[in-house]
Amino acid sequence: MKSLITKLGEKSVYDAVCGCTRCGFCSQACPTHLATGRETMSSRGRNQLVRLLLEDRFEDPGSAQDPLSTCLLCGACTTACPGQVPTPDLVLEGRRRLRRGKVPLAVRALTRLMLERPALLAKLLHAGYLAKRLKLDAFAARTGVLRLLGLRVLEEMSSHVEETPNYFLEEILRNDKEMLVQPGVAWLYIATCGPNYLFPKVGLATVKLLKGRLGPGALFKGVCCGLLAYNYGRLEDARAFAKKNIEAFENAGAPGSVPLVADCSSCAAFMKSYPQLFAEDPAWRGRAERFASRVRDVLEVLPPGAAQPGKTGRVTYHDSCQARHKQGLVEEPRRLLKAALGDRFVEMPASDSCCGGAGAFAFVHPRLSDELVRRKVANIASVQARRVATSSTSCLIQLARGLKKYYPECAALHVSELLSEDSDG
Question: What is the pTM of this model?
Fold first, then answer.
């Protein structure tokens, strides 16, 4: 990318990285710096590495690989930075330069399936879930077949993910006659990949809440948001995903004020950033801006509901990085939880620190990820919570893993699940 749309206006990538004055405000916000104490693992350290890459001053550019690959892209640094330096975007630019188009086989295959053959992907995932229920994934792990095929990340993912739904969310909602676009709809719902393929129960809880609190809505027939492709440097694929969603929304026939609601904060944040993909394409930038202006995280559209009597157990909240730092959603989820839970809701220390999930980060950097989730679970345990709510798929997976290992008395739930559960009385 040649330019970035930042909180302080549009800048060239080089101007943006030069905005880092190395003041150090970000150091106490950067989770990897706090966990390791290494300057190269800090936000300002990474910014300087990217600047050296842009200036072609590295004798061995590969030495920047580990510091840049271990960035969580959480955005806590930008929130803390007086100059609002967009470190996550700069780190991604550095990664693209280091990769030079080389992307893991599993990512390339998954991206192409999501973009061109989503029906085939669904069949393959159903087959994979059946294999997992039959314990065949354990056999593959013992024999090392996935590692031999260069798919070690898939082996790690299988060991982390315990959900194996029989039906995907879109398959369920397509049969719901109330979810057809018709006059009077108040919202459109997009089944992003996490709720669709991994946690249909999250999407069903979201739809139930939206129907009950906002009125009739409809299923948006879009595709993957493209975040996976974007994070791995496949910009043209990310743009292709974005174009499909923009065109589908333009043709959906919904009134001009109807929001497009997502219940994975990572996907919602990325769709709001679509204009960045087309910063240098005037023909698409305006369309991307109109689309992004209609995207809403479920956290910001749900009106609070009354607290329900008879429920027990403390509940706390973990801020998804993409909800808090990318979208600025801080008070919205708390208003929802306080209204529904009353004094059963308790804040935990450092609720805004990253849990170490960050998409595939937990699978690629397991030791560092485990250190971060251990700290997060310690904070959850410090307030004696029995449930922790969050709003991103990767957070749900990471928290479930960490809680099972370090604090099994507590369960991780999506905010929608928690509110839907409590609304049943």
Answer: 0.91
